[in-house]
Specification:
By secondary structure, the chain is an alpha+beta fold. It is built from 16 helices and 18 strands.
Amino acid sequence: MSRLLAAFLLLCSLSFAQSRTLNAEAAQAEAAHFLSDLVKLDTEDPPGNESKVAEYIKAVLAKEGIEAELLKTDAGRDSVVARLKGDGSARPLLIMGHEDVVPVDRSHWTVEPFAAIEKDGYIYGRGAKDDKAMDAANLEVFLQLKRMNIPLKRDVILLAEASEEMSSTAGMNTLVAKYWDKLDCEFALNEGGGGLVENGRVKYIAVATAEKMPRGAKLVSSGSSGHGSIPRVDNAVIHLAAAVAKAGTWDTPSRLNETTAEFFKRLATISPPDEAAWYRDPLNPETQAILRVKKPQYYSMLRTSVVPTMLKAGIKSNVIPPTAEATLDIRMLPDEDVQNFPNLLAQAINDPQVKVVTENDKLNMPAAPASKLGTVMFAALEHAQKKVLPDSITLPTMTTGATDSAFLRAKGVQAYGIGVPGTEEDGRTVHGNDERLEIKQLGTFVQFLFSAVTEVAGK
Ligand SMILES: [Zn+2]
């Protein structure tokens, strides 16, 4: 009797597990179809025109009986949100992707950027990877949850948001301020991670748990003006040039946080011996000197970085200008003292003729704490990797760039950056030319996302 019951329960659990398995081929084909449609909607930002994407997603959902809502900010720049209800025993999960793309310089493209041309297993086009692949995968997983009628303990919220590429009032900062009741969640899955494909296999899956905070600053140098035929020691251009050199070569203080400590530890396990030695001891000054040249991305993950990007001085070759200006792109560690850092920079420059002027931009990304590694969401992502890509590993990372996750983390959400794996070459096409995404990897990513979402939100 008890054996019969056990057999029955086993059968039940098998069919239950089966009901949660995607038809990989069909899901990949449908996600690729969504991606192709989305790429064809030109949402170059500026001006964005993201409503085209919002309307498209709303229509796809409507066909399957899911009601979506357009979130209004600026004209023509709608975002779209939809929700599958859980039983309320846990707080919601938000899956999101942005609708806009960066502009294209057609003279450098070998294919039409908004035609979603399919070639050699890839889809080409602006946004193919950043970030319409995320929108397509999110939409696919969301539809599958509905079609398979998967019982949920938490609401799953789908969001496609406007204006990520150019901070504007149409984007996430306004959505969070105006529509928080529709977005409030415990966990969020967003862009910002990915995975590296080498020799046709996924070497690692990167899950971004933190990101650096972009902060603008200017160096303003002043001195006496005069005729270019008479050299002056207080020439503003000379003082600015020296200050820029000091700021740009300054070895800012380095440190590890929970994410980067784990990142380097795990990276060492999949690296060749010489590199592994660096990653086991990343704070060693000798290691840092090597990383600075060979792995600038990793060097940046260890510190707040200061990078000069623009210069402005003078109007005529024989006139010494009274002022000169340099623009700095400063990317702060999540725990950086935002108020005090400009003072440290001024000390490093150490020139009373040069002032550090911080930019008080309303659209600044908020200070956002790193998300934790010890959550059920991070565990679900790791389990999904082990299930879908058993030969790979999960690397928690801190992105040096900024994403919309910052606005959520600032509200207390544990947000994780993920993304479709690709080769290093694929990665270079993001914000570059001939942007592309391998369809097979999109399929793998849909399975990965589905697995993580069902584990964390399913009953
Ligand atoms: Zn993006």
